[in-house]
Amino acid sequence: MRYVPLQAGAASAASGMWYFAYGSNLNSKAVVEWSRHFGHKPPPMKPGRPAVLDNYRLSFPIFSEYWGGGIGDIVYDPGKYVMGAVFDLSDTDLAILDLKVQRKLDTGGKEIGVYRRIEVDVAPLGKGKPVKAITYQGVSVERYHIPPTQHYMDLVIQGAYSFGLSMMWISYLQSFSTQQGRKPRPPGTGDADPRL
Q: Where does this protein hold substrate (predicted)?
């Protein structure tokens, strides 16, 4: 993937990788908390720029044990859009996010985890031309809505506010049905016997 600055005259990064975040990764606090739970150095999720991904829609078809409910995914849907933010991240930073979203490859390089990386064109809001970016999409997911926990949605909405995404988008996020739940916890800390 070729690095393209978001603005004319912007310095290029050593890594040259744009990453588009739309779910809990939009909230740097959520990324830091997950990293702390699992003993990783959190990727620098700032500064980011608000951006839009056209021809996709947001959905919540994946259940996460960590979050205790549904988590965000994107589905190709012409005419729809997803708002988020683009970040300039290194390979090392993306490797940490791969762990967070449970991206895995088999020995042949086929995506077999919960999410896979895909390359998309995103348009920064305001000034700037569209850029190629990496984002995550569910690998093999039924397209049913699994209500996210209110805590998860609050983090997504806080992330949207922090990047100045439109009130229309924030209202859309608030329109999803949610469930009462718990704050996130790493696997093995639940009520069930871990050997089950």
A: 19-24, 152
In the chain, domain spans: 17-174
Question: What does the pLDDT look like over 98-149, one tens digit per residue?
Answer: 888 888 878 888 877 889 899 999 999 987 889 999 999 998 766 788 999 9
Known binding residue 81? Answer is no
144 is in an annotated binding site: no
Model pTM greater than 0.85? no
Annotate 100-143 with DSSP letters as a single string: HTT--B-TTS-B-SSEEEEEEEEEESSS---EEEEEEEESS---
From 3.40.30.10, 3.40.50.1970, 3.10.490.10, 2.60.40.10, which CATH number describes the 17-174 domain? 3.10.490.10
Q: Is 13 known to sit in a ligand binding site? A: no
11 annotated as a binding-site residue: no
